[in-house]
Amino acid sequence: KAMCSGKLQTGLLVAGYFVYLLVGAAVFQVLERTAEKQEKMAAAQMKEAFLQNFTHLTVAEMEQFMKNLTEAIQNGVYPVGNESQIEDSSWDFSNSFFFAGTVVSTIGYGTLHPKTAGGQIFCVFFALFGIPLNIVFLHRVGKMLSLLCKKLGKFLHEKGMRKKKIKFLTLLFFLATGILVFLCLPSVFFQITEGWSYSEGIYFAFITLSTIGFGDYVVGKQPGRNYFSYYRMLVAIWILFGLAWIALLFNL
Amino acid sequence: LVAYIGYVGLGAGVLQALERPAEVRAAQHLLQQHWELLANHTCLRGAALQRLVEGIVQAYKSGITLQGNTTSLGRWDFSGSFFFSISAITTIGYGNLSPSTVAGRIFCILFALFGIPLNLVLLNEIGQLMLLGVQRCAHRLEEVFHWQKKASLLVKTCALVTGLLLFLLLPPVLFSDKEGWSYEEGFYYSFITLSTIGFGDYVIGMNPDRTYPGWYKNVISLWILFGMAWLALVIKFCINFLE
């Protein structure tokens, strides 16, 4: 009888999972469809307008140029500006370090990614050992934080609180401080440094710390902004502790 | 902690060495074309071209390619949205498709907030079932052949190899046929997807010049699910080994 209910549970889980996906898909479709249509129309209009202004440029040449441009963009070369941009590399050490971090934490923004076959193969093996290393590391940090938690619990217990209440309070405390420190405050910070709106900041913080990492928002990528030199490092530390906090939440 | 930072730093150094030259070449190539175009059409003033380029970059970032006249399939059709939902709750997060409306983003956060734990629970279940299957095989072998300790090790390596074949080594062959990627690119894509890193530089079913069979995306979704469960088991064993 236990076996039967176990199988039923698994079946329900699988069914629930797919239903969840279907519902999500439908909602996303409804929400995003119209915006996409508008953007497409805008892009087509821009193309039209450009062709009209320069009537001797054949459509074929235009298409070719756009194809080359799209390829370049896909390769991460943004052709805005002139010669001097060749000197600034996306693969300087600081950016490569940040990239390696996104690999090992499995966030994987994708704004920077290896294009050479050698780089890609190295990336695979780097991740194969780096991801367990990352998990072990986060586990340790989570353990240290949970020791802190237990000390707090002990302190409260000596003051005469019941165990259940303590557990509930510590969970609440960590949840609240974590949300403040890792979601709310950084969003305010990003408002200043990146010029994002508050909701964009929260969206970025959530997508990053959950390791989804779409890459539509990434720190330090706005052209024409000056970032103070330890900005990226600061953000990396935030990501690290944010991930450890999430690991801790799972443990509690 | 030192090992962690050292490891990341080492990776950074190697990647930089590997990627820099190719990047420089690509940039130079593009700049060349840029000047060629300007030279061919002397009335094209730099500023107007610049604006066009910026417009194209912007469109690209929102995921729109301006090829041809055809109104290509909307990417937020049901199949695309379904795939997006998967990429969100598995935390792969390719990013080639991402919500641009405020409502879409808020929904995305809530959707992931409940979806990610759901996904973890399901992956755990699948992983346990796989492990159970492997252990049963080991038991059977022990009964039939009267091996003792060898059976367990043999079955475990067998399972590892089949998993490797099924999830990492064979799919690139399918991808090179359907997507036109090289084998190495297919392997890279498979690993990046199953480890949930998900850069989004390679995504299946996104090539407008290719036609995909109806079963393609569904089969891939199943592959992602089981492959992730398998890889999670492998990484768990790696961690036990490290600790």
UniProtKB/TrEMBL annotation, chain A:
UniProt keyword annotation of Secreted present: no
What keywords are annotated for this sequence in UniProt?
Answer: Ion channel, Ion transport, Membrane, Potassium, Potassium channel, Potassium transport, Transmembrane, Transmembrane helix, Transport
Which residues does the UniProt record annotate as the domain Potassium channel? 89-145, 171-251
UniProt GO BP: stabilization of membrane potential
Keyword Cell cycle among record annotations: no
Which subcellular locations apply to this protein? Membrane
Q: GO molecular function terms here?
A: outward rectifier potassium channel activity; potassium ion leak channel activity
Question: Any transmembrane segments, and where?
Answer: 12-31, 118-138, 168-189, 201-219, 231-250
Q: How does it sit in the membrane?
A: Multi-pass membrane protein
Check the record and name the InterPro entries matching this protein: 2pore_dom_K_chnl, 2pore_dom_K_chnl_TASK, K_chnl_dom
A Pfam family that the UniProt record links to this protein: Ion_trans_2
GO cellular component terms listed in the entry, alphabetical order: plasma membrane
- The lineage's top-level taxon is Eukaryota
Q: Would you identify the family this protein belongs to, as annotated?
A: Belongs to the two pore domain potassium channel (TC 1.A.1.8) family.
Q: Which PANTHER family match?
A: POTASSIUM CHANNEL DOMAIN-CONTAINING PROTEIN, POTASSIUM CHANNEL, SUBFAMILY K
Record-given protein name: KCNKG protein
User: Which species is listed as the source?
Assistant: Stercorarius parasiticus
Query: Gene symbol?
Result: Kcnk16_1
From TrEMBL, chain B:
Keyword Signal found: no
Q: Where are the transmembrane segments?
A: 78-97, 103-123, 153-175, 187-207, 219-242
For molecular function, the Gene Ontology terms on record are: outward rectifier potassium channel activity; potassium ion leak channel activity
Q: Predominant location of this chain?
A: membrane
**How does it sit in the bilayer?**
Multi-pass membrane protein
Domain Potassium channel positions = 72-130, 165-242
Q: What are the record keywords, sorted?
A: Ion channel, Ion transport, Membrane, Potassium, Potassium channel, Potassium transport, Transmembrane, Transmembrane helix, Transport
Q: Name one GO biological process term.
A: stabilization of membrane potential
Localization in the cell: Membrane
Report the GO terms under cellular component: plasma membrane
List the InterPro entries hit by this protein, alphabetically: 2pore_dom_K_chnl, 2pore_dom_K_chnl_TASK, K_chnl_dom
Q: Which residues are glycosylated?
A: N69
What's the family? Belongs to the two pore domain potassium channel (TC 1.A.1.8) family.
Name of this protein: KCNKH protein
Name the gene.
Kcnk17
